[in-house]
Design goal:
single chain, about 450 residues, alpha+beta, seven-stranded mixed sheet, 13 strands
């Protein structure tokens, strides 16, 4: 692993130099070093130092400081407008909540600090002056694509159970395999996840679905660690090994969910709503399963049931309202048929809008990619529909607001009343079906005819 691949921004270099000039050790550490060694541009940089918090404050007394993390040894320095966390080497005390240490003790030893961290790939430190510190073999594990705990895996996960989900996320997003002993400890320790907040669980699940290499690893990771996923979302368990007995499907329900979510991550990298929707889109199938006389499996009403389950799970995981509604909308309508003509296409756009219509089409593509090969040709039909959405939406009259007449224009024919609403709907249906041109005089004439016919009956 080449050390010269570690490039440090000038503002970070300046902080390191100031600490070193004051007589302290200073390194960048963790994810920024890992990503640099992998050729990935880090998003942020964490600094660790032998300086005690009060010593760090003295070094940077001429700069703006944020002291909210002092209890745990962290001083945040605003450098060139960016917050940079500088943390003193430390040793953690006992853990009683499987999340945070009861206390921390500061140390002058970098090795002691690194020894408390989660995985070897995150236990590498680098200093332009002192070079690479890698006593636990992190660089070699990165080269081999391996996730391995520092020290005893069981101890690491009992200290912080969130590390179990972090291991899964890293495995999917980086494409690394989890070392055997670490994987076994993750599975054995999964009950500790009950101590982790829903928000943190959801953040890790979201990262697993949207990582850089998730499009090739979601199914592998969530198959290997399915019992961990079921620990935090028990609703998935009903789909384990549930054969669909369908001429369209070659996978059981759970495997189909994973394959669909992975397909979503490939066709729309980083789009969390679609990936989540595909992970949930058939989760209600076990409740809806029936077989006909020929043995063919059917799941009537499963989309609605799945949307209800997704809504319940996402509420429990504290997902935002906007995200939850978007995901559940995709799940609820993921199996509507492909429009056969422009009339049906306009009605789809009118009912669902451009964004949801696109998401529904994308869901169909991801769904078909996870079925038998003979379903793949339908993906092209949905791709063509997606390409036409902007043009069709611009050219079409999709709502009452887009009509060439409004309530004021109709007031001379019909007073404001429920009947006016029916007239407007009649006109909109006629325009969307291609029967009426969206022209003021024509629509007024048709409105008059409609009212006259109603009065006759």
């Amino acid at each position: 692993m080449e050390v010269d691949r570690v490039e440090i921004p000038s503002n970070i270099t300046r902080i390191l130099d100031m600490l070193e000039s004051a007589g302290f050790e200073a390194y960048i550490v963790g994810g920024c070093v890992r990503d640099s060694l992998m050729g990935i541009q880090p998003h942020d940089y964490d600094i660790t130092t032998s300086a005690l918090p009060e010593e760090t404050e003295r070094v940077f007394s001429g700069m703006k400081l944020i002291e909210t993390g002092l209890k745990h040894g962290t001083v945040t320095v605003l450098s060139e407008g960016e917050p940079v966390e500088i943390t003193t080497y430390r040793v953690d005390g006992e853990y009683h909540d499987s999340r945070r240490p009861d206390s921390v003790t500061f140390t002058r030893s970098l090795r002691e600090d690194i020894a408390r961290r989660d995985f070897t790939m995150n236990g590498i430190a680098y200093s332009p002056k002192r070079g690479l510190f890698d006593e636990f073999g992190g660089a070699e594990d990165i080269r081999r694509g391996v996730i391995r705990c520092i020290g005893e895996p069981e101890r690491r996960f009992h200290e912080d159970a969130l590390r179990i989900l972090r291991g899964m996320r890293f495995s999917a997003s980086l494409g690394f395999r989890v070392e055997e002993g670490t994987a076994a400890a993750m599975l054995d320790s999964r009950g500790l996840l009950r101590n982790i907040s829903a928000e943190r669980v959801f953040a890790e699940l979201s990262g697993l679905l949207t990582g850089r290499k998730s499009g090739g690893n979601i199914r592998r990771v969530l198959t290997q660690f399915r019992d961990i996923l079921a620990e935090v979302v028990p609703e998935f368990r009903a789909g384990f090994d549930f054969e669909q007995h369908s001429r369209f499907h070659c996978l059981d329900i759970y495997q189909h969910l994973l394959a669909s979510a992975e397909a979503a991550a490939r066709i729309a990298p980083g789009e969390l709503p679609l990936a989540l929707a595909m992970l949930f889109h058939d989760i209600g199938k076990p409740e809806c399963f029936t077989r006909d006389e020929s043995g063919e499996g059917h799941f009537y009403g499963h989309a609605q049931v799945s949307a209800g389950i997704a809504d319940s799970v996402l509420r429990r995981l504290r997902a935002s309202t906007a995200l939850r509604e978007q995901v559940c909308g995709i799940v609820r309508y993921h199996d509507i048929p492909l429009p056969e003509n422009d009339r049906q296409f306009r009605r789809m756009l009118s009912k669902h809008g451009e964004e949801l219509s696109r998401d529904i089409a994308m869901a169909h593509i991801a769904d078909d990619m996870a079925k038998k090969p003979e379903c793949l040709p339908r993906c092209e039909d949905w791709r063509r529909l997606i390409a036409r959405i902007p043009e069709m939406a611009q050219e079409s009259c999709l709502s009452v607001k887009s009509l060439a007449v409004d309530g004021r224009a109709l007031s001379g024919i019909v007073p404001p009343s429920p009947l006016m609403g029916k007239v407007l709907k009649f006109l909109l249906d006629g325009v969307m079906d291609g029967k009426f041109p969206n022209e003021r005089e024509f629509l007024l004439q048709e409105a008059a005819k409609y009212i006259a016919n109603r009065q006759k009956t």
